[in-house]
Amino acid sequence: MESKKSIIELAANTFKLESEAIYNLTNYLNDDFVAVVNEILNCEGRVIVTGIGKSAIIAQKIVATFNSTGTPAIFMHAADAVHGDLGIIQYNDIILCISKSGNTPEIKLLAPLLKQRGNKLIGMLGQIDSDLAKQSDWILNTTVSKEACPLNLAPTTSTTAQLAMGDALAVCLLEARNFKADDFAKYHPGGALGKRLYLKAGDLALKNEKPSINPNASVKDIIIEISKNRLGAVVVIENNNIAGIITDGDIRRMLEKYNDWSNLKASDLMNRNPKKIEYDELALLALEIIKNNNITQLLVTKNGEYFGLVHMHDLLQEGII
Questions:
Q1: Does the reported pTM lie above 0.85?
Q2: Distances (CA, A) of 259 to 108, 248, 249, 262
């Protein structure tokens, strides 16, 4: 059984070796890297990313990142490529081949076949004198001094370097494409991430009741309306205009302030300057307003008119928080 100290030391050393390897990649950012970015930007086809073993797993992640940030990409396993999957490649595609050594049998067989088809080949590799390097039009150097594995065998530092190089490519490409949050939302419509980018305050308000009372409503009527709609608030409407809002917090403060509240009306208790948000603003902005003002409900308007209410629980339920 390893001691607690030795386990932590091994983990810390892994972080150290891998972070140093990533930082060292800055020394390999050269004309080839710039050329690769520009070639992919101008590519009329897709980026076909291929590899074998652990590099194939990294290739799949790079493909996922490319696709989600505006660069069309497809994964092709190097072993399957020579058994029919070469048909994936179209004449205007560009190919990114990932390999630590650049000399594995599958890669040595595949690289010349890729060149014969006339496609441009990018080699992401750790040995710049390898067979893959000789076949490549451009080289993305991901050389590492050693693996984090104590035996210096299991791909650890090398795959981390490949992953980081892929991320650097993706970031440069999305910046060059002027890729914005709205574009990101188009590719991520599902889950909490997508909702943060497209869900509007009005979408949430429509799911709730629309509680309202007039300025002359009694305290009893106020409490009934607040309790009935389970939003912790009611909006005071006068002549079809928003006069204010009363929350359950206002009711508690009323009980602390007054001994006799039988003659109080909604106009006596309401907040005349409630926080508001337009219905077509992002729910993410609603969350920011709620947090910054330490409130739990937010009034939603449409062209200045009462549209509905958003509660903190709505944001929680949708995974915005």
A1: no
A2: 88, 18, 17, 9
